[in-house]
Amino acid sequence: IYTFGSTDGVSGGVEQTRIADGNPGSFEFFDNAWYLTSIITADKSDTISLQYVDKNESYTLKSTQSLKELTSPMTYQPAGAASWPSILHTSVVMYNGSPNSDPMNTRQLTTGKGGLSSIKWSQGEIRFKSNTARKDMLSGTLLDSIEVVAAGTGNLVKKFLFQYSYIGDRYYLDSVSEYNKNRTDKMTHSFYYYSGLPSRFSNSQDHWGYFNGAGNSNLLPNNSKLQTVLSANREPNEAAMKAGTLWRIKYPTGGYTDFDYEAHQYQASVTPGAPTTVIGANTIWVSNYNPKMPR
User: Fold this and answer.
1) Of 34, 41, 42, nearest to 14 (Cα)?
2) Phi, psi at residue 88, to the nearest 5°?
3) E strand or H helix at 87, and its extent?
4) Whether the Cβ atoms of residue 93 and residue 216 lie closer than 8 Å to each other
């Protein structure tokens, strides 16, 4: 039997999320996520309970970008010295509907008891520790560690520590280290990434949102139907789109797995030998290395 969301008002598992522009205090939140709170085994011999704590996150989103033009002259002139283009803000890039520079004031707000804190069953408990404040949010925390403890005694069985790096307004998981109960033995999985990914607010994006290395001032490509000349390069770049993706997992034994990505391609023409065009999605090649096996 699976139960989602709290029925006792204590264990939590209900979350509210809202997209807000401007002052978030003027918005009302509604329940929109119900997390797993309990599992009763088929023979009813054990119950797995999931406990949640308050989650309060505020995540800044990239503003929408748009441009509008008058397709035909207005039949009358506005009063005063103002012109229709200045009143309607035509032929200028708009950010969240505003002609001002990118305001970056759209936020995803999350509240409620949606932060997983523990999983309990008859033989033990798993505890999730999240105390480090995130730099990429106005509020929010990182998962620092996971502890497995024995039921009754509360003695530590094992512990996992998470290490991160913060690059370009993003967190990357660098390693997960597993310790025994005495913390005398450590097994670490390390993670490596292709470098070069810019800030998540960068305009250097292809049509699918992948980094393309272009020096765009906005996201609007040229359109022959518009009089305004736009110049954003939204074409995909296979080398650039790898930036930020997982490159290698190194195991505690010394072995590793490498990931090599390539963009999908399609035939631009039915003409034999015609060039292919890269589009913005990834496939993966995986290779493995075991130091204990000859190559």
Assistant:
1) 34
2) -90, -5
3) helix 84-88
4) no
Chain length of the chain: 295
Of 257, 253, 143, nearest to 192 by C-alpha is 257
On whether the CB atoms of residues 35 and 116 are closer than 8 A, the answer is: yes
Tracing tokens 């730099």 back to the chain, one arrives at 135
Q: Rounded to a whole number, what is the distance in angstroms from the first to the last CA of the chain?
A: 49
Mean pLDDT per 10-residue section of the chain, whose length is 295 residues: 78 83 64 91 94 89 85 75 78 82 74 92 96 90 96 92 93 95 86 93 92 93 85 93 95 94 72 54 52 50
Cα angle: 136, vertex 142, 30; to 5 degrees: 75
CA distance 260 to 254: 20
This prediction has a pTM of 0.80
Q: Residues with Cβ < 8 Å from 131, sequence gap 6 or more?
A: 141, 144
